[in-house]
Amino acid sequence: MYVDSKKHSAATGGRARMSRKAGAAFTAWNGQLRGKNLLILPNRLVMQAWRATHWPASDPDSMLLLGFQEAPGGGQVDLLHLNVPDHDHEGVTKGWNKYYWTPWKKYIAAQKKKKKKR
Fold first, then answer.
1. What pLDDT score was predicted for residue 28?
2. Residue 21: CA count within 13 A, CB half-sphere
């Protein structure tokens, strides 16, 4: 879902252009987030150089690691987001819950409901 443009956009409500290929650029949230895929291990790991467009050019990219694994009752996503600039640390921390975790849960629940109806 995270590296699929259509599903990422549907799950979050913000337009995304994602890729499943290492070295490929991506954007999310209508272009407000951008970066480059550094490593993709299908269904296991996404590693990205990641930044918000409002960060000054002098701020280095942050590093995002998303790990995916099966867990009882579904799956588990582990997140490690490093090198977020101090001036946006609180915003990014709150943003993960507001713009990703909460919408993802709703999206996944809706997808499960659709499957049960079939």
1. 97
2. 4
